[in-house]
Structures are given as C-alpha cells and as structure tokens.
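Narrative summary of target 7.
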Amino acid sequence: MMKRKLLALALSAMLFPVAGSALAQASKISGDVVKIAVLTDMSGVYADLGGKGSVVAAEMAIEDFKAQFKPKFKIDLVSADHQNKADVGSNKVREWYDTQGVDMVTDVLNSGVAIAVAKVTTEKNKIMINAGAASTRLTNEDCAPNNVVHYVYDTYALANGPVSVMIKQGKDTWFFLTADYAFGHSLEKDATAVVLANGGKVLGGVRHPLNASDFSSFLLQAQSSKAKVVALANAGGDTINSIKAANEFGLTKSQSVVGLLTTIIDIHAVGLQATQGMMFTEGFYWNLNKETRDWSRRFFDKHKRMPSMLHAGAYSAVTTYLKAVQATGTDDTATVMKKMHDTPINDAFAKGGRIREDGRMVHDMYLVEVKKPSESKEAWDYYNIKQVIPAEQAFQSMALSRCPAVAKK
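Modeled conformation, tokenized:
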C-alpha cells in the first residue's frame, strides 16, 4: 500500500508541472503576436464606404492602443480586397487563419461575403468583428455568437428610424429599389415590416445588380408606381448613382427618395443641393461632440475625408478586441470573446455599447436630416440630428431573435 502511495505521489509530481506549464502556455498570446486583418472592398462599389479608410482606422486604433497600454506583445495588421465575392473573401480568410496566424478579421463589408466568412471563422474558431455588412442574418439565422460580433449597424436599425417617421408625415406608400443580394433583400424585408406595422403600403419594387451601370429603367418603374416614397435598399456607389439619377429624372419633384443605408460619404459625393431634407439612420457623425470631432479630424489628416460610421466602427472594433487581449493576457478565442461580452464599450464611436448573447453590439443610433446648403457652416457639416435612438430601440430585441444558438426562455 505504501509503495502505491509513493508511486502516485511521484506520478503527480511529474504530471502537475506539465499541466501547469500547459495552462500557462494556453494563457499566453500565440507567438507573442496578435494579428488583425481588414477584409474589405478596395476597388468596387463600397470602396469609399470602407476600403482604405477602414485600414486607416484600424491603424489608428493600433497606434492609440500602443500609446495607451504599451503592450508587451506585437501587433500586426494585414488587409485584402474581397472584390465583393463570397468565394474570394472566404478563401482569403481561410488562408489567413491557416498560414498567417490571423486572430481577428474586421470590416468584412458586403453581407454575402460576411455570411461566408462567418462560417470559416466559426470552423477555425477565430474571431470576426463585422463592421460593414448589414444583413440581420448575421445575428439571426446565420448567427455564431461564440465567434462573430455584428458591430456597427444592421438592416433592422437602418430601417427602423426613417420609415416610421416618414409614414407619420403622411408618406405612407412605398416602392423599393433594391440591390439584388443578401444585404438588399434583408434591408427591403426589414423596411417593409416597419412600413406595414405603421399602417403604410408597399406598392412594388424592383431589384438591380450590384454596381449597376444604369438606373434609368429601375427609376422609371419607381416613378410610374406613384408611390410617395422611393426607398433605396442599396449602398455605396449604388446609392450615390440612384440619388443622382433620381434628380436627373425629376423624380424628386413628386416623390421622396430615402436612402436606407446612406452615409456622409454619399452626401459629400452627391452634394447638399440634391440631398437636402433626406432622412436616414446613422451610427456616427463626426460633428456630434468634441470627442468625435477630435478623432475625426485626426482621421481626416490621414485619409483626406471625414469618416463614415463604418470607419469609426472599425476603429472601435479593433480597440475593443485589443483591450480584451490586453486584459486577459491571451488571444484564446473563448477567453477574449467572453471578455468583450462582459465589458462595456466606451469610445468615440459608442458610449455604453455592449455585446449581447446573439453577437449583436447594441449602441445608440441617430436619425439625421441632411441640411440645406444655407445651413452648412463648414465642409462636411451636413447633418441635423433629429433624434437619438436608444440602443434598446435601435436594434431588434432579443425576444424577436431567430438565432439558433440563443435558447428561448
């Protein structure tokens, strides 16, 4: 019996240091390098919405994090153009995860790409903080809350603000001009639900290919519908070209045009004369307060234009991730995700933001109205903030969640 006890003690002495060493190793950062990737549209219809600006924002986040926390680990940043193709994006991310040691991917602008990348991210047990794709599928049918965070906006939040307000103004008949892929379909669906819930009617709609070269036939259908509102369920260059064409056709003389995903980049491209009075939901405005102005002017110095909400969100996403790595001392996915879920988000982009159990980061949104040219006091001074939409109202409630990973109680 004594011999057995001695043998057991000897084995324990041999095994515990190994186990302890393994635990210590698991708590460390792999290779002492945290590697972040920006996957975006560098050359297509969404390049100005995200693109190089998202890389600049990520670089700023890393610079600011290093200055504040002086981390002992190295931080690398890589980027790539997904060309708005799901296979290109998912293959690039798989390569990053398999051969380049990437820990977290952000931006992922384009819903079709993001849904594909989320699947690879989950398979490889890495982290995706989606700043650019809008489809609510990412927190509903295709949710992956252990690996994916939906950060800046989504189609529910984009539709919720302007649709209900415009119907209350008597603009109760709607026609949709929709980008024909996952994002556009989701945005049209969510906006239609708000229209119907508020007593409005949808008179029809037409779908156009991504990066359409000519909107004339689509706008003729919108014009002939006699709908009071022509809703643009598209984004980026497609929204810009839709608004320009609507003005050229004279459609805006008798119908209201609302861009359901419109940003300051679009307003700058089209100009206040053609966009004055437009209302839409924004997640960020550079001229909101001193903190947003200070950060945005730093961004402008580097990128020569004010940031979109996606750019500000990409900065915040990278900062949130790095803070979680710093606090936990590891790049282990489960540990970092738990820390991000447990920690409020407070920066130039969001105050009191939090990541819910379905992976949705909830924060205040803003209903904005584009100023008249005479109201603008300086370059990029384009918005009047009509309403702050509290986080709990801006995004789909958990009671409506269709995320299979979230148990209904």
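The domain at 33-153+288-364 is CATH 3.40.50.2300 (Rossmann fold).
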